[in-house]
Specification:
Lignin degradation and detoxification of lignin-derived products. Pfam families: Cu-oxidase, Cu-oxidase_2, Cu-oxidase_3. By secondary structure, the chain is mainly β. It has 8 helices and 33 strands. The chain has 3 domains: about 160 residues, Sandwich (Immunoglobulin-like), CATH 2.60.40.420; about 180 residues, Cupredoxins -  blue copper proteins (Immunoglobulin-like); about 200 residues, Immunoglobulin-like (Sandwich), CATH 2.60.40. A 6-stranded mixed beta sheet has the order 11-10-13-18-15-16, with no helix packed on it. A hairpin with a 2-residue loop joins strand 2 and strand 3. Bound molecules: copper (II) ion.
């Protein structure tokens, strides 16, 4: 993928602005901010997984997709060219996109899709954010294979708030279907049944040693004894919350959702789809090979899930059982120790195939885009598996699929590193249920949900419907009537024992609508997400576009505003963009509405979003010029009205 760096933004400012800025330009180092350009070609690509060759949609032929590496303060332009046969949009998950919803990406929320043959350049600034984020398609189910890491490094000269790790490695978790994921979705849309569960969990594009035809391609994470590696873990899975464990090593959590956290040690990490977690691992075990494993946290009882275990190998350079030379004589593939050692500091780790017979692990290639090529480079490899060229790696402890205690303990450990100023008092409050619903239908082929229904989901009983002619943001900005209403209810239409396992059937059927909730610019917004027991209670990872929010409290059962207000953490709550609402429980989040526009709020489990588990906030403009949504870019994809 081509990456070029254009002139520093500060220099450009000098040309275009007046004397006051001129002085500023002298004071700021020229390299403080750069404009980075990427070209993302969305295209069909052949890949082999689970013994079969399939066509998937990728960016630039890579799966996982290219890594974007930028610095805080940079401006970024990503030209998306759609060479696939599906409509597509791209979303930059966790980026604030201040006043710039046009670059946010969710289809029919902030833009119409990029049609096949079309293109759109996403332009945005990184303003005061650093850490691990990711990007993904936000159209239909394309994000199953159209996703990648988005790494924001601190401004030059600004250190991490922890000792600089010797190396870094993205760990991208995903799901694989033996079929086209779009076909899986379509089948569900036709029949009304929930979509089929995936066939394998992936780590950096590979299922690992325990799935058929996969062991030879298992992802390797090369480490050097005594050195510390920063693992940037991203849950890009469509529908599965995942536990991640590493054999023989403790992990120290230092960030979540691109916000630093109070460091804590753990043996297991939990991530819902959409979430990221950075962990430091010091290689102080006996040199050798250790499995990094991921498998489901399936919080809903009696609901099918993908129960496979994905593995990668955390491999010491030159350790016992770790090949050190690139013998490459066809049979047992070798790991080139020299390549591993080179240039381990700084950039993201890169795994790239060396072609004929042997697999070589190239060290990080330094700054710039696309240093993580994932497994594609090794896909031709047909000899022995590097990961199997020695003693079997040690397997880590993994919690049981339904281990809610471990999930809760992990989530509750995440805190801001220092006391924060929690905004208050609250000026706008929304109490919303999040959960399933079942639409009654006439028994037949289009009524294949549980007990002759069509499967759905809702917030406050509204099952969210996207428009299909123009996006919500365009309708808002251009005052186009009839696209949405702004009457999303700030509380449920009926109060009941939300988390009971016996919610009366009369309450199971939601109402379809495109309802937005209007927020005053500058309002202090508090949202209580309340899970329901309708059909099944399940943990829902709720994501708010355009914002980070403080998570003041979570709990089980029904939220009680009097009792539970005492549980609010007003000292060091974590700041996140995606919060797992506990199964059969609730979560309270708070933020200042300082970003005007239309912002999707939704469950990041795509099967639930597809069912309608979403809504959108309409944050009004403030009074000042810099408090208003920017004008749309000229190349915003045309809508077919
Ligand atoms: Cu959900």
């Amino acid at each position: 993928m081509a990456t070029t760096t254009r002139g520093p933004v500060t220099m450009r400012l000098c040309f275009f602005s007046a004397a006051a800025l001129f002085l500023l330009c002298f004071l700021l180092p020229a390299a403080v901010a750069e404009e980075r350009f990427y070209e993302f070609v969305v295209q069909e690509t052949l890949v082999k997984r689970l013994c079969n060759t399939q066509k998937i949609i990728t960016v630039n032929g890579q799966f996982p997709g290219p890594t974007i590496e930028v610095y805080d303060g940079d401006t970024v332009a990503i030209r998306a060219v759609n060479m696939a046969r599906y409509n597509v949009t791209l979303h930059w998950h966790g980026l604030r996109q201040l006043r710039n919803g046009w670059a946010d990406g969710p289809e029919f929320v902030t833009q119409c899709p990029i049609r096949p043959g079309g293109s759109y350049t996403y332009r945005f600034a990184i303003q005061g954010q650093e850490g691990t984020l990711w990007w993904h398609a936000h159209s239909s189910w394309l994000r199953a294979t159209v996703h990648g890491a988005l790494l924001i490094r601190p401004r030059p000269g600004v250190p991490y708030p922890f000792p600089k790790p010797h190396s870094e490695f993205p760990v991208i978790l995903a799901e694989w279907w033996r079929r086209d994921p779009i076909a899986v979705l379509r089948q569900s849309m036709i029949t009304g049944a929930p979509p089929n569960v995936s066939d394998a969990i992936l780590i950096n594009g590979q299922p690992g040693d325990f799935l058929e035809c996969s062991a030879q391609e298992t992802s390797i994470i090369p480490v050097a004894a005594g050195e510390t590696t920063l693992l940037r873990i991203i849950n890009a899975a469509m529908n599965t919350e995942l536990f991640v464990s590493l054999a023989g090593h403790k992990m120290t959590v230092v960030a979540a959702d691109a916000m630093y956290t109070k460091p804590f040690e753990t043996t297991v990490v939990l991530l819902g789809p959409g979430q990221t977690t950075d962990v430091l691992v010091t290689a102080h075990a006996a040199p050798g090979r250790y499995y990094l494993a991921a498998r489901a946290y399936a919080s809903a009882q009696g609901v099918p899930f993908d129960n496979t275990t994905a593995t990668a190998i955390f491999q010491y350079k030159g350790g016992a059982g770790c090949p050190t030379t690139a013998a490459g004589a066809g049979a047992a593939g070798a790991v080139a120790g020299a390549g591993v050692g080179a240039g381990a500091a700084g950039g993201a780790g890169a795994v790239a195939g060396a072609g004929a017979g042997a697999s070589t692990f190239n060290g990080p290639t330094g700054a710039g885009a696309n240093t993580f090529n994932g497994p594609l480079g090794r896909s031709k490899y047909s000899g022995g598996n590097p990961g199997r060229a020695g003693p079997a790696p040690m397997l880590p402890y993994l919690p049981a699929y339904n281990d809610t205690n471990t999930a809760t303990a992990f989530s509750n450990s995440i805190r801001s590193p220092a006391p924060v100023k929690v905004p208050g008092p609250v000026t706008q409050e929304v109490f919303t249920t999040v959960g399933f619903g079942l639409f009654n239908c006439r028994p037949g082929p289009f009524c294949q949900g549980p007990n002759n229904t069509r499967f759905g989901a809702s917030m406050n009983n509204v099952s969210f419907q996207l428009p299909n002619t123009v996006s919500l943001l365009q309708a808002h900005y251009h005052h186009i009537p009839g696209v949405f209403t702004d009457d999303f209810p700030p509380m449920p239409p009926v109060f009941f024992d939300f988390t009971s396992q016996n919610v009366p059937r009369a309450l199971w059927q939601p109402v379809k609508g495109t309802k937005l909730y209007r927020v005053k610019y500058g309002a202090v917004v508090q949202i209580v997400f309340q899970d329901t027991g309708i059909f099944a209670a399940e943990e829902h990872p709720m994501h708010i576009h355009g914002y980070h929010f403080y998570v003041l409290a979570t709990g089980f059962g029904n939220y009680d505003p009097v009792r539970d207000a005492h549980k609010f953490n007003l000292v060091d709550p974590p700041s996140r963009n995606t919060i797992g609402v506990p199964v059969g429980g609730w979560a309270v989040v708070r933020f200042v509405a300082d970003n005007p526009g239309v912002w999707l709020v939704h469950c990041h489990i795509d099967a639930h979003l597809t069912g309608g588990l979403g809504m959108a906030l309409l944050v009004e403009d403030g009074e000042a010029e810099l408090e208003a949504t920017m004008a749309p870019p000229l190349d915003l994809p045309l809508c077919v009205l």
